[in-house]
Specification:
It is a single chain. The strands form 2 sheets. A 7-stranded mixed beta sheet has the order 1-2-3-7-6-5-4. The protein has a 5-stranded antiparallel beta sheet with strand order 11-10-9-8-12, with no helix packed on it. The protein contains 4 helices and 12 strands; from the N terminus they run E-H-E-E-H-E-E-E-E-H-H-E-E-E-E-E. Helices cover 21% and strands 32% of the residues. Helix 2 crosses helix 3 and helix 2 packs across helix 4. Strand 1, helix 1 and strand 2 form a beta-alpha-beta unit.
């Protein structure tokens, strides 16, 4: 496993996408991104000392649909943070955020997959607030120092993340998505509690009761019916 380290680039996801000949599980890390982004095109602020890294994933025999990679990545990211953070302070927010004491500390961006990057290749970007966090985001954010935690360097975190991702991916390939889903649900923020799902112009309230094999969130409504949420934003009530 090799991690290419660069000082300043547009975005780590774009850097990998522009190099289609790179082998499976090639990583890149940047000190600074000038065009970093999160889900739904939101800007991802480049604070010095934070982790900005991406990996290219090419489908391998035994692996499930590419949308399951979001959960493989989340399990790996949480496992990486366990090295420096007490695990009971970390939770996973559907579909792809990591929360520290209930506040976002890291995010994941998947691009490509089925019908996307060539051959079903997926590029996964990780942003982790190791050194600082923005204070102008729509939803609150935090960082390891803000939570009283001595943070690793970005290089140390990247090395650990790459190792944990390899482990989580091997688990997925060997034991299937059930193993990953169980690990993810073990850390799920809001499981068994009332939440609100915002689906474009529609807002639906219910209880977060599970995770489908396709990664959809199971939302049990007041009439006991289950609504499968495949895309959207969820918030605790």
């Amino acid at each position: 496993m090799v991690i290419t380290h660069l000082a300043t680039i547009g975005s780590t996801n774009d850097w990998l996408a522009e190099r289609p000949d790179l082998p499976d599980e090639s990583w890149v890390r940047a000190d600074t991104q000038t065009g970093g982004r999160g889900r739904r095109g939101r800007a991802w602020l480049s604070i010095p000392g934070n982790l900005f890294t991406s990996v290219v994933v090419r489908p391998q025999a035994g692996e499930g649909p590419s949308q399951q990679l979001s959960f493989v990545a989340a399990v790996a990211l949480a496992a990486m943070l366990d090295r420096w953070v007490a695990p009971d302070r970390l939770t996973l927010k559907w579909p792809n955020d990591v929360l520290l004491d209930g506040v976002k500390v890291a995010g994941i961006l998947l691009e490509g997959g089925v019908g996307g990057v060539e051959g079903g290749t997926t590029i996964i970007g990780f942003g982790v607030n190791l050194a600082g966090h923005p204070d102008t985001t729509e939803r609150p954010a935090t960082s390891l120092p803000a939570a009283g935690i001595a943070a690793p360097t970005a290089a140390e975190a990247a090395d650990r993340l790459a190792a944990e991702f390899g482990t989580a991916r091997a688990t997925w390939r060997t034991y299937g998505f059930d193993a990953i889903r169980t690990a993810w649900l073990g850390r799920a923020a809001g499981l068994g509690r009332p939440i609100e799902a915002r689906l474009g112009a529609e807002t639906v309230a219910g209880t977060f009761t599970g995770l489908g094999a396709d990664g959809a969130l199971d939302l049990t409504l007041a009439d006991a019916s289950v609504r499968r949420i495949h895309a959207g934003e969820v918030f605790a009530l």
